[in-house]
Amino acid sequence: MKICVFGASSSTIDKSYVSQVEELGRKIADRGHGLVYGAGASGLMGAVARGVYEKKGEIVGVVPNFFDDEDMGVDGRIFQDCTELIRTDTMRERKRIMEERADAFVIVPGGIGTFEEFFEVFTLKQLERHNKAIAILNVNGYYNAMIDMLEVAVKEKFLRAGCKLLYKVFDDVDETLDYIESYKAPKINVFEMKDVKK
């Protein structure tokens, strides 16, 4: 299985986030899975890649060409030990390839790019463009506010309650991977569901 991990590229985040995401990478490889991700060498992108690499797992990195531009100031640049490195012209193409190559998605803490990636795969699942597992690894409660926001969106009827079945939140690496490995893609039409308790 190829697991796509979306997460931060920032090198200034607290080490407690880094250590847990490195452990995610090690366990992805230990369980016989490969990684698909954005090819970064720093932050949580670098952490998950280092973990997979340490255990000799497969790493598919996908990166836009403009990240080579020294004026970009992109933290970390590119992880040099990817099994396969795919270059793209645009961020849109990068996301498309990651989404297509992945069998499941894990969202770890990140910034605006990670938020965008989560909401894109969430939206596409709602629209039945894919039915892959989406797991949020909520390290240090980082995503509590976002989860609360989604609850408010359901309560105020901006989001259908059935959407809460399209992702699952964990604070433990093993539970996250257990969910992905045991995931049975349900046929869910969120537009027909009136009230769902998660």
From TrEMBL:
A GO CC term attached to the entry: cytosol
Enzyme class: hydrolase
GO biological process: cytokinin biosynthetic process
InterPro entries on file: LOG, LOG_fam
Keywords: Cytokinin biosynthesis, Hydrolase
Membrane-spanning residues: none
Stored Gene3D superfamilies: 3.40.50.450
GO MF annotation: an example: hydrolase activity, hydrolyzing N-glycosyl compounds
Pfam family, one: Lysine_decarbox
E.C. code: 3.2.2.n1
Presence of the UniProt keyword Oxidoreductase in the record: no
Repressor among keywords: no
Family: Belongs to the LOG family.
Name of the protein this chain belongs to: Cytokinin riboside 5'-monophosphate phosphoribohydrolase
Protein's organism: Hominilimicola fabiformis
Lineage, broadest ranks: Bacteria, Bacillati, Bacillota, Clostridia, Eubacteriales
